[in-house]
Design goal:
single chain; 2 strands; elongated
Length: 174
């Protein structure tokens, strides 16, 4: 189960890189429509949400008193409902400054490795006490992995949809 979730994390992270790689440097910072984030902002949002995971894994924990993946299904239901809209926590809202494509992709690659290393270094069945997730409460390390996977998959979908709009906009302005 644990090698499977690490493989799933790595595959999802690689998919994110592939999708971001479709964008040119200027397209990455193009807003597809009013009220939306650019692909660069979505990447920054993911980076901010993922950077804390290795720190949470290193923080205080307690033994689990339930199935260590009990909240997996609920996490999937929430994050993979592409019709639902959610407001990001203030701590993971991206900035407005344009980002360099190579810099963003490098940072995302580093966090991918950091999370995989943390997942291999700690007992994934323990409950992390350092960060409570609204609606879900305290999560095990395993559930944090699934949160990262499903959250990233959600935004891969968004980046793919926005790419179609950005391409259409660039063709319309030629």
């Amino acid at each position: 189960m644990f090698t499977e979730v690490i493989s799933q994390w790595q595959a999802t992270s690689e998919r994110l890189q592939e999708v971001l790689n479709r964008y040119s440097a200027s397209q990455l910072n193009t807003n597809p429509f009013t009220g939306s984030w650019t692909a660069a902002q979505v990447g920054e949002h993911l980076l901010k949400s993922q950077e804390i995971i290795p720190l949470i894994f290193k923080g205080p924990v307690m033994p689990v008193q339930r199935s260590p993946d009990e909240k997996r299904h609920m996490l999937a239901q929430v994050f993979l409902d592409f019709n639902a809209k959610y407001e990001a926590a203030k701590t993971i809202v991206p900035g407005n400054a344009p980002l360099l494509k190579d810099d963003l992709q490098c940072k995302l690659a580093h966090v991918k490795i950091a999370i995989a290393n943390a997942a291999q270094s700690f007992d994934l069945t323990e409950v992390c006490l350092g960060q409570e997730v609204p609606v879900f409460g305290m999560l095990t390390r395993l559930e944090w992995m699934y949160l990262a996977i499903y959250h990233t998959q959600r935004h891969i979908y968004q980046i793919e949809k926005n790419y179609e709009i950005v391409i259409a906009l660039s063709l319309a302005t030629r």
